[in-house]
Amino acid sequence: MKDWIIWENGFHIENISQNGNKFLVGNGYLGIRGTLPEYEKSEFPAINLAGIYDQVGVAWREPLNAPNGLYTYIEFNNKPYRLPGDLPLNHRMALDYRHGILYRDTVWDSGDGKIKVKSERFASLEEKHLIAMKYSICSDVDGEVRIHTGIDGDVWDINGPHYDELILSDSDQLIQAVGITHKNKDKVGVCEAYDASFSSQKQIITLGRKILRVLSFHAKAGVNYDFYKYISVYTSKDCLNYIDNAIELVKKAKEEGYETIIESHIAEWETKWSISEVIIDGDDSAMEALNYSIYHLHCIAPRHTDSLSIAARGLSGQMYKGAVFWDTEMFMLDFFLFTEPTVAKTLLKYRIDTLEGAKRKAQSYGYQGAFYAWESQEGGYDACSDYNVIDVFTKRPMRTYFKDKQIHISSAIVYGIMRYVNYTGNLDLLADGGIEVIIECARFYYDLLLKKVDKDRYELNDVIGPDEYHERVNNNAYTNRMAKYTFECAAHVIKMYRHMNKDLDDKLSAQYNMTVLLERFEDAALKLYIPQPEDTSKIIRQFDGYEQLEDVSLKELKGRLLDEKEYWGGAYGLASHTKIIKQADVVTMLNIFSGEYSDEILLKNWEYYEPRTEHGSSLSACMYAMLACKCNMPDKAYPLFIKSASTDLVQKGKQWAGLIYIGGTHPASSGGAYMTAVEGFAGICLEDGKLKAYPNLPRHWNSMIFKIIYRGDIYKIEVTKKLAKISNLGKYKA
Amino acid sequence: MKDWIIWENGFHIENISQNGNKFLVGNGYLGIRGTLPEYEKSEFPAINLAGIYDQVGVAWREPLNAPNGLYTYIEFNNKPYRLPGDLPLNHRMALDYRHGILYRDTVWDSGDGKIKVKSERFASLEEKHLIAMKYSICSDVDGEVRIHTGIDGDVWDINGPHYDELILSDSDQLIQAVGITHKNKDKVGVCEAYDASFSSQKQIITLGRKILRVLSFHAKAGVNYDFYKYISVYTSKDCLNYIDNAIELVKKAKEEGYETIIESHIAEWETKWSISEVIIDGDDSAMEALNYSIYHLHCIAPRHTDSLSIAARGLSGQMYKGAVFWDTEMFMLDFFLFTEPTVAKTLLKYRIDTLEGAKRKAQSYGYQGAFYAWESQEGGYDACSDYNVIDVFTKRPMRTYFKDKQIHISSAIVYGIMRYVNYTGNLDLLADGGIEVIIECARFYYDLLLKKVDKDRYELNDVIGPDEYHERVNNNAYTNRMAKYTFECAAHVIKMYRHMNKDLDDKLSAQYNMTVLLERFEDAALKLYIPQPEDTSKIIRQFDGYEQLEDVSLKELKGRLLDEKEYWGGAYGLASHTKIIKQADVVTMLNIFSGEYSDEILLKNWEYYEPRTEHGSSLSACMYAMLACKCNMPDKAYPLFIKSASTDLVQKGKQWAGLIYIGGTHPASSGGAYMTAVEGFAGICLEDGKLKAYPNLPRHWNSMIFKIIYRGDIYKIEVTKKLAKISNLGKYKA
Predict the structure, then answer these.
(1) With an 8 Å Cβ cutoff, are B461 and A458 in contact?
(2) B468 is annotated as an active-site residue
(3) Domain boundary assignment for chain B
(4) CATH label, A277-730, candidates 3.40.50.170, 3.40.190.10, 1.50.10.10, 2.40.30.60
(5) Distance from A398 to chain B by nearest Cα, in Å?
(6) Tens of pLDDT along B460-471?
(7) Which residues of B touch A572 (CB under 8 A)?
(8) Model's pTM, two decimal places?
(9) Taking CA atoms, which of A678, B132, B172, B550 is between 20 and 30 Å from A598?
(10) What is the dihedral angle through the alpha carbons of A12, A14, A16, A17, rounded to the nearest 10 degrees?
(11) How many CB pairs under 8 A join A and B?
(12) ipTM of the shown complex
């Protein structure tokens, strides 16, 4: 059994940016990068906020980092001791990922003796606006200590600075920073309270964009000097009296004291684990990686609101514009559906609430219905640019088509809503706007349908499927099947809504001609062309003409690179005219619709596409892993599962694209690891409305034990090799 | 009045490759580049043959250059005198473009005195397999002359060498070279006979790939020593006994003598000019440029066969693979229709005879009907590669879509056939396969039609229009209108064919269900979407979304170039995401269908598109010039006309693309210049089956006089400013 601690021993300057992600703590409202209190923006510290964005000029619009209320460093005998500049004797960081507490422990040599600094901090899971830190200093010789601690408003931004104005103030022993954003003049208020077990000389100064307490005292050898910081964050989007709330919160926290609030915080985490922990007997590393992945999903789950989604890099920073991708519905949703359906509902509510944005996007292209944003920010605004890649050879932006051609995004929303309906048994989301979303997505696809004048089949042309290396293709199997699924769902909800409630019936009937829509969607579902397995090979072509592309090995393709950073996709990318794909595409479709295909087809396509897949996206490995389980190949699934589960632990992913930081956490990988474990190895699925398990454990696993919530009840699942036991533990209370 | 001579005085080594084109002589069977007899392959001499091709390895397939029977140089007192190595005292070249005779006149200083060499040569317009040259040597001091003359089999090739075997022989005072091609083992036979007015010591030697006569004699000061060469070219594709024919021909020529054969040659040219000369009063330069353009069209007109077309670079070499483009039907056809309808018929017969190739091409893409080759060689084989451009930055081939997406090519064939029918009044081409071509082209477009499921209109998506800088666009106005035209023509011929003759009726009825086809084509013509002028601006969008592209000036665009050779088109080309276009596109459509649009629409679109056009193709200027005439702006047409007419005269066009020679003559420009003069300035058109003229002469032109053939009669057209006189001169005899 592992100890729920992730360590790093020694100070490794090259790991600063990765560790920001690996040691992240968060509570869904905010995420605090795993940086040290003394870091300034060159080391990428960030308290990244969920769902609030700003744009400066024509640069990318991105979420805000709050002024850093954790900022702290010390001097001993007038000499500062801080990383990364002052190299230590010893240093270690540790993340308790069962409770979301980050520890640091550093020893410097002052020449006369050793200075030890310890800190621990967390973003309260109980009180989402609160951060708390305990900081200790100890020297083995007497000396003069000066603590600099306060709020650093000079935050790291990728496309900032976002705070045109920064108001620094102090009153009543509290210090405050209020940032006012460039575009919308939103306010971000941070308040800090300080408490210590020892007395000191105190002074409050402002230094540029920092407001700092300077605390001086004479330290005796061997004595631990502990102090505490309580930091609150509220924005003007949270409430009108954001600053009063911030003040009140830190006062209350200081009154209650560090031990009390950390206890509630830990209790809240234990509640989460009581449902979501997955126990694996026989593979401690896998169990650690999986629960560490689950930890990250908890850190970013929006629980402070009923309508918000998760960004592709979670709350680890402004990377990928803090935007919501299909990752949420296709890769993260299941974890929340299975362990905390309220969060699943919140995620989907965000999509319902951004339907207008999706309709506006469709309209801007001349389409009807709802075309969801490829990179969704508030209101469903599509932050995706037409030029997402810089050509390494010319340094010119390349026209990419993610925003305009990746139409499968809308079907992912429908898929998410229907999955919520099926797993919870609740129709609340449908009644509360879900039906309109499904109908508008179906209208969108209907408007895109093309028919060859002399054939009675419908097509979807000029799209990008999940595999982004092949742009502007016709009849992508995944996209077409998901569009068909959307038509099927739309027809289904149109047929059922009348029985739900009278008001809804009235509302929808006023909006739509349901008879006509039903007829159209049923016709479309019937006639939309779905690429079928070829007669002998059983291979499903990813899109029209895929079979004619060059069949080259990944190795050979890599050998053709002129620049290791060159883009593989686009019109002339090295992969574009070959069969090499970026990520699971046909395999994603087969995974979702596995029941419609024979075992032979599933297997042959897995075997065909796997060696042709770069797995260049964190969305790829888990799809192959899950399908491998369905093909009774858990041992082939295993390394792909480990890859998904360890993504943020090993931090081997790309950190930089040219000068742009693209590292961060990978919640879709975490979600994919969870799905692989639960739906792949344990084989959880629904059959005729019943929860079933068809286990396929890796050879060296003895058993898996976990719980999932289904239709309001908690079930305990115990899986051993080929046997499964599902026990109903009674009602789940959110 | 100009003297019908194009001069170059002095020897300019940098002009060698251009002069090869500028001083070309030809007779439709072969074209002889305007090089000097002593040139070897580094100076690009070529006797380029029409309609016979070879391919070596995977290099581009290209037409053949015959072994060079003109090869000749002299020595005086054991020292050779030849260009470009031995710089002369004086040198000039002159092309009599009324009669297709090239003169050279060079004087060297031997130290003791001057050596003069003169030559004249022509490709007989009367006997297409015959070339003749007269060569004179004169020295102003006595000396020993040695003439080296014979056949140089070491020909210049772009993607050769094509002759795997070269058989050199001599017998009966004749020398011969037979080249056997690499792929098809075709034979190219060249025979040479020599005649002189003086006696000399004779020897025949072979030297590598050359077979040479070495003629030595003592030359007296001031005496002209003349000799003659008669060279015949026959290939195994012309006849079985190609070598016997070649021998017989040179024997006969030698017997008749140089003066006799040059007389017949000149007489033949005079016959051509008696119909085709255009007289312009008030602008000698324009008249010279125009008639020089007409000269080039005569040089490449296939008159030795009844089924052959013209390559994009005529007979000036292997550039552009010697392939036939839409240039022929859209830019050259009118000249032949108006002055020599038999040639027009031959050009179109080539398309009828290559219908099978066009059907095969369609089939290879999964389409029905006839998809004509973008770069057509024999049998309709499409020589166009999928990778036509090399990226200057990566040196990698770029995937281009000329071959697969430039579907408008098929409509050009239909356009040509119908134009032939309308101008000649003959239905022979229709009966002789033309109807099948039209129907198959219509079937091709019909198969490509897409219909939005919820709209009753048809579309053509993912095409390239005439403007090649914007790839893979939807609803290109030109393409859609030409497809509609094809449907209209197909419906028209289906309705008329039954009345033509019984055999034809039987043949077609056996092949097609004409009732169904008629219904389909009429439906398609009705419903195919044609982009309409916008309400206020009156601008017709070149394709869906054109209006959203960046509106940048040509100058600014050029300023963005990182490399002057970089490709402006493709997915990321500098022009691709702007409104800058390569060549006339909407304007070409408006020109063809001007009768369907108001004067205001014609004018506004001309004014909109002209500054946005690079005119980067020789097919562009004339379309703008003709539409300018229709908009009563002859003075705006004038510089564009001069640009078209002078293309080969000034030879400013690109000669090189990287290491590939792309220079040559530009028959589409020549044809465009003719069209601008006759259909633009003189305003010739058909109205209700009658020939009409609506003159719009440039301000400084007093009058134009020319003849055209219409429905079997010759008409003399005399145009003065705004008045036109059309006189019927009686029956035309081909």
Answers:
(1) no
(2) yes
(3) 5-253+261-274, 277-730
(4) 1.50.10.10
(5) 6
(6) 999 999 999 999
(7) 391, 394, 396, 398-399, 570-572
(8) 0.92
(9) A678
(10) -160
(11) 72
(12) 0.87
